[in-house]
Design brief:
alpha/beta; single chain; globular; Rossmann fold
Length: about 120
């Protein structure tokens, strides 16, 4: 299966994504913010990144922009519940910056798994 990096400052969201993805046989690496996420990606590159957009240290929009510049073929899924404004304000920006899929919180396991399947090469799903 594949290796997926999950970057989210909410431990419950990371745990939920870990459960959804490991139940499907994927290896999951977790990071609590964008700085940690980029460090972990550089130490152990993954096949896919799922990142929240609103986080301390370095926000998801910055992560997406950096990953697009350095690793243009990498699949990135942006997730967001919004913040002071709604997810509908941030998710289109994430898509414009290069996230291949955008998913609003709360999400279903099916939404996540469908996006992962669509972005991973057939041999990695």
């Amino acid at each position: 299966m594949s290796r997926i990096l999950v970057i989210d400052d909410d431990q419950q969201v990371r745990a939920l994504l870990w459960e959804i993805l490991t139940d499907e046989g994927h290896e999951v690496i977790e990071a609590a913010d964008g700085v940690e996420g980029m460090r972990k990606f550089r130490d152990q590159p993954t096949d896919l990144v799922i990142t929240d957009l609103i986080m301390p240290e370095r926000e998801g929009l910055e992560i997406i922009n950096q990953l697009r510049r350095e690793f243009p073929s990498l699949g990135v899924i942006a997730i967001s519940g919004g913040g002071r404004v709604g997810a509908s304000d941030y998710l289109p920006i994430a898509h414009m910056l290069g996230a291949r899929k955008v998913i609003a919180k709360p999400f279903s396991a099916g939404e996540i798994l469908q996006a992962v399947q669509e972005l991973l090469p057939p041999s990695r799903t």
